Amino acid sequence: MRHGLLTLLVAGALLAGCTGVGAPPAQQPAAPAQTPAPEAPKGEPEKKPAPLRGYPAPEIAGKDVRTGEAVSLSQFKGKTVVVNFWATWCPPCREEMPDLQILQDEMGEEIKVLAVGGDRDEPAERLLAYANDRELKFTVLYDEGMALLDYRAIALPTTFIIDRNGIIREKIQGAMTLDQMHHFVNKAIEAGKNQP
Q1: Does any domain span residue 151?
Q2: CATH of the domain at 171
């Protein structure tokens, strides 16, 4: 039933024209092509309030699907981090994945793209196969959907731009264009430089 509902929601989003935005970031800062995120299982404890711009980003901890090694958001302190919640079945997520790779390639060591599996029912092996098939080189993290709950990402994709000091600078629901990614990342880099 849950997967049937998700399929209907995805189909509805596609029929509604969920293909991204055409305006540059200065004119239209957010890009709402999105797919609803899976709901948390019933009986789970109440989570913290949603992270907000200007506040510290909650920790994220999981395993790199390529290496199986533990990865945490805090290990990237000192870099601007693009945390992208996604799923392989999400059409807008698939649209922006190549641009996330281009962003990582163009910005190199200055940033870190961290793609976090946003569906706790989607196994790490599927995330790995998807990343390998599309030659995605950035870090793909599997954490059983825990960060998605902490970050209150209610749609996929949802992206958080976190500055080098661990402060959330942007939350974007929906797919972004490469220009929008550069815009938000550059703003976060500047904001991070202006903090002590």
Answers
A1: yes
A2: 3.40.30.10
Total domains in the fold of the chain = 1
CB contact at 8 A, 174 and 149: no
Q: Is residue 162 part of a domain?
A: yes
| Residue 5 is assigned to a structural domain of this protein | no
What CA–CA distance (Å, rounded) separates 85 from 73?
Answer: 13
Length of the chain: 196
Domain that holds residue 141: 33-38+49-193
* 99 token code pair: 């641009």
Beta-ladder partners of 192: none
| Terminal Cα-to-Cα distance of the chain (whole angstroms) | 51
Question: What letter represents residue 43's amino acid?
Answer: G
Any idea which residue has 């706790």 for tokens?
Answer: 120
Residue 90 lies in a domain: yes
Strands (E), 35-179: 35-36, 61-64, 70-72, 80-86, 111-117, 139-142, 155-156, 158-162, 168-173
Q: What tens digit of pLDDT does each residue of 41-95 get? A: 555 555 455 588 889 999 999 999 999 999 999 999 999 999 999 999 999 999 9
Convert the pLDDT of each residue in 99-130 to its tens digit: 999 999 999 999 999 999 999 899 999 999 99
DSSP three-state, residue 71 = strand
Contact call for residues 148 and 156 (beta carbons, < 8 A): no
Exposure string over 56-67, b if 16+ CB within 10 A, otherwise e: ebbebebbbbee
